[in-house]
């Protein structure tokens, strides 16, 4: 049960479910480990598993012909699945890379969908998850359009200090849309 301590805490606080449903859900997860630098999700692949980051750090990013752009970091136990691709049975446009050694709990999509049908609380999990994703995406877009990289960095200091400790600075620079040298100057000014 030690592999399920973090996910149990996550569900108890974020998505309270009945105990019977949780036990069956936990029994359906498999434990997977990845080394630093391993790709977990790659553009064009299909999300056939629901993935929960049990420990470690992951970066999520997009690739264009010119560059890679980090869009999100996962440093705390949480689901890291591309829920849009997962729910709509489409290929993903995202990439995810292990920044450290990580442990994931995974469940096959068909097994998860069967549990959603079996337990009423499953629908609330999906609804709440999509609400949170939409809210985060809108905030991210708003910040990217209306704030300077220095303002964004100050927000990271307040709301995501664990990112600044766990994520290499060149990845933070990509997230802010600046070069590592510009980030260095921002840090000196602050």
Automatic annotation (TrEMBL):
Record-linked Pfam families: cNMP_binding
InterPro entries (alphabetical): cNMP-bd_dom, cNMP-bd_dom_sf, RmlC-like_jellyroll
Stretches assigned to the Cyclic nucleotide-binding domain: 17-116
Protein name in UniProt: Crp/Fnr family transcriptional regulator
């Amino acid at each position: 049960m030690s592999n399920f301590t973090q996910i149990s805490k996550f569900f108890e606080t974020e998505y309270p479910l009945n105990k019977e449903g949780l036990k069956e859900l936990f029994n359906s997860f498999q434990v997977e480990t990845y080394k630093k630098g391993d790709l977990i999700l790659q553009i064009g692949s299909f999300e056939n598993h629901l993935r929960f980051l049990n420990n470690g750090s992951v970066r999520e990013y997009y690739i264009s012909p010119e560059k890679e752009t980090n869009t999100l970091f996962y440093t705390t136990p949480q689901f890291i699945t591309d829920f849009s691709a997962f729910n709509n049975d489409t290929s993903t446009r995202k990439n995810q890379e292990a920044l450290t050694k990580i442990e994931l709990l995974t469940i096959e999509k068909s097994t998860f969908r069967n549990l959603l049908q079996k337990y009423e609380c499953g629908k609330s999990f999906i609804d709440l998850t999509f609400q949170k994703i939409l809210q985060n995406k809108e905030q991210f877009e708003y910040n990217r359009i209306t704030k300077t990289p220095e303002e964004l960095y100050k927000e990271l200091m307040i709301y995501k200090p664990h990112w600044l400790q766990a994520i290499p600075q060149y990845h933070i620079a990509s997230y802010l849309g600046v070069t590592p040298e510009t980030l260095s100057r921002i840090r000196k000014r602050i």
